[in-house]
Design a protein that fits this description.
By secondary structure, the protein is mostly helical. 68% of the residues lie in helices and 0% in strands. Helix 2 (25-37) packs antiparallel against helix 3 (41-55), helix 4 packs parallel to helix 6 (97-109) and helix 8 (131-143) runs antiparallel to helix 9 (147-160). It is globular.
């Protein structure tokens, strides 16, 4: 009798649908606004931690377990195991941005920039103000040798949060000297 129960539970969870991700867009917008007003990097870093907590809030317990396990495996340098978990998360919750963002991060760490970029693009389609996906996209584009696109993406991220750690990678536009002026 117990085996039949286990099989039924597995079948039910295997065919369960992921609920819609929690809508934290308003709270993220408030945190980004606060980050733009932050007096210093430390204050902005605390706001970024609050953003991460919202982005990592999975749609349900099953998705949360997949995300947490994938991130733990990634942190332990078990990239193949992390990809296994994050592939399962994306398959289960195709409308959850952080699944794509975390899978892209694993690809990035493996220097598989070509695989990371579509995941980052999908994360941004689902969560347009996901600053971490923007900076991840910028770094990935740099890895692909697409510097101009990387600079555009980084500028977008900095507009939303001027304190992103990657802000030092933004190149100042070249200074043009009006004709007739000497250096």
């Amino acid at each position: 009798m117990k085996l039949a129960t286990v099989i039924c539970l597995f079948a039910t969870s295997a065919f369960a649908e992921c609920p819609a991700p929690p809508d934290h867009s308003q709270k993220i917008a408030q945190l980004l606004s606060a980050a733009r007003e932050a007096p210093d990097e430390n204050s902005a870093r605390m706001l970024a931690q609050d953003m991460w907590a919202l982005w990592a809030d999975a749609p349900d317990e099953t998705a949360q377990e997949m995300l947490d396990r994938g991130m733990k495996r990634r942190s332990s340098y078990d990239f193949l195991g992390a990809l296994e978990d994050l592939d399962a998360l994306v398959a289960y919750c195709p409308n959850y941005a952080e699944g794509y963002n975390q899978r892209a991060f694993v690809h990035f760490l493996r220097q598989d920039f070509a695989s990371a970029l579509p995941d980052l693009q999908r994360a941004l389609e689902l969560s347009p103000n996901h600053v971490a996906a923007m900076t991840g996209s910028a770094l990935t584009l740099i890895g692909l040798g697409r510097e101009s696109e990387a600079q555009d993406m980084l500028a977008r991220a900095i507009e939303l949060n001027p304190w992103v750690p990657e802000r030092g990678l933004l190149k100042a536009p070249p200074r043009t000297i009006p004709q007739g002026e000497d250096l």
